[in-house]
């Protein structure tokens, strides 16, 4: 009998028992028919009944008493509740994350920060999982080493070497995610009350994360070529932040990349005031040609590089990394043990390494860049037609940071759109100084459906009409 | 041509290019032979060369220039360095974790806190990975929902229901690990400087984790039936700890389980002084029959349940959980977004759910319990023969908490054993009050090799002879 057919028969037996329990034909505490009797009654093999009973026991509906058979517990399965309780929430930095992550399948998400699953290298992921299924039992079942998979670290170091950044494997630590990497760095370098500098606007989850650490947040306006340098120098000199957290390339949410002059000046100002920089390089591979990187210029003296594979390969395969001075990595290893007992799953790291090593990754990213360029060209005029104007046209990535028509409040727009099943990302969740009250971040990869524009148009009209 | 054979040919081409680079037959900046020329020279198909070049480019050894071919970067691969720098380290709570996690394959680890990979349900893990490889692209590539996989939560709630603990799916949050669950709870409930109570001895990583949170640690002696109740009541009344973190069942490191009377008294004292309890239930499924659980008695009013699958299914599949009051879970969801951008990999949760639902899990754990009972019976007399005496014989699990022969210092013993490739777990890493200076924790599942006893005997002799 095929696995599939056997599976179906097992499920038939399970369904029959569940139905009997629901109809009170079997009472809580009552013994189920013996394996043999049930097999005869349902015309299946005894081993099918054994599997069905085992699975019902795993679910808690029935319970084995050794030597005596199976009994109905009466607990059944807890009531299925897909929807989260409808707690009204402020539109804070968590709002966009939670709406996007918990969106029902039929919702549209121009506000979310990732590519649709269909854009990811599905065949390579499936092939990688099959390779893991044939892999060693250590990868299947053991904790990994404290720094994470050496093959993946070597591949990453090879890629860094191509940029001119030559590191040893001791300078690289794999983490559960890019976010977790920043979290560990904050734990390592900062005390509650320390001052941290971010861009205005910046990735909204930096705000959420830094708040968890009880830090004092300052921001500096972001221009098309990097932070406003006069403001940057003034705030660093006056407030002496311990840390500056930024995206140099394809900055979230503006899509702007750092100019060589700004990169040089930012490093100089940081050095003059002994400030550490976290460069979150998560959008690195979306650039057609690399823009300047602080980590490369500085050689990881005072810059820490952070990245992950959630935007390029899979958000389900949780794996990020941090590259830094070896003594700092030593400290981060201890922190990762204390707070997660180790790094990412060796399975996740193995899957990423498999795809990076296969060589297909380069082609995948070429294709993604091509599709995104096309999507930017298609989406921008449609938004302009609604009076929504991109602040700049980024050279890569999936974000368009846009000014709304005069008087259209992004938070009210987001509420109206959500009621129609569209998740948006209103400007001020990205702004520590709350200066983005007429901006909105759009993800061009999530805007193929005409319904997005219809909903935006209706919502804008409703706002105009008060 | 089979995948395997094609793979080998690709690797042959890669090896040839690497060898040429190493021998300086190809200089940095130099162009590689064209695909066609290389294919002819090596008698392979052009597509094999394309794949080999792509993979070398992924490693950083060569670089594609669009329209112009491939060039040697000259960066090569960074030098392979498996060994960590030999930094002398104090035997602190991190010592055992790092030695165990980074142990070379030929080392023996009676000090580590997990089962050998060979004890894990390898066939079920492989089958689960193959099922994922056939799964939906959302599970392969998307972030999961904020609380984590609903099928896995339902299975867990079914199991909790069997114990008499009936929860809704909103009361359960999946996490990257049990440790990360405790970390989130500390972030949610505590401020730096707050007082936290642990057992003496307790799991050493609780000490490491609580130190990260800048908390004040107090401990209460653990007896064979739970915390010393007089001492517990006195310290709770006098110091008003916010939190008590404990293992009720098969406590780490002693293997002792809580008595019904101690469970009732502990809850009463906690209620009288408004103290929250984290019950880390990671060894739950190792008990032959369940002992009393604080979470069940209390119904999750002031008790938080934490667990994971690292000890029973796979330490590589990172997935833990926390069950608590729904309003607390809401807060933990935000914290998990801020610090990890979501929970465990949907792939990891899917794999665990697949194995739990299959029903094979119950048989796997029966087999594990049988093997562990056998291992305890075999190991205890061998240790006693060396003058190493178990403090009690646990009813389950893999730990034996043992007193060493008089005058044998566990830290010195650990250093001597490490020099011979054996990782031990000296008593005081488990003790906040440093009262376990003549104890050692042994893992019976990691002590099948006769070499363990030979090394212990030699090291004990060396200590006796000064």
From TrEMBL, chains A, B:
Residues 7-75 form the HTH gntR-type domain. GO terms for molecular function: transaminase activity. InterPro entries: Aminotransferase_I/II_large (IPR004839), HTH_trans_reg/aminotransferase (IPR051446), PyrdxlP-dep_Trfase (IPR015424), PyrdxlP-dep_Trfase_major (IPR015421), PyrdxlP-dep_Trfase_small (IPR015422), Tscrpt_reg_HTH_GntR (IPR000524), WH-like_DNA-bd_sf (IPR036388), WH_DNA-bd_sf (IPR036390). SMART domains: HTH_GNTR. PROSITE patterns: HTH_GNTR. The keyword Transferase applies. Keywords: Aminotransferase, DNA-binding, Pyridoxal phosphate, Transcription, Transcription regulation, Transferase. It comes from the Bacteria. PANTHER family: HTH-TYPE TRANSCRIPTIONAL REGULATORY PROTEIN GABR (PTHR46577), TRANSCRIPTIONAL REGULATORY PROTEIN (PTHR46577:SF2). In the C-terminal section; belongs to the class-I pyridoxal-phosphate-dependent aminotransferase family. This is PLP-dependent aminotransferase family protein. The lineage of its organism: Bacteria, Pseudomonadati, Pseudomonadota, Alphaproteobacteria, Hyphomicrobiales.
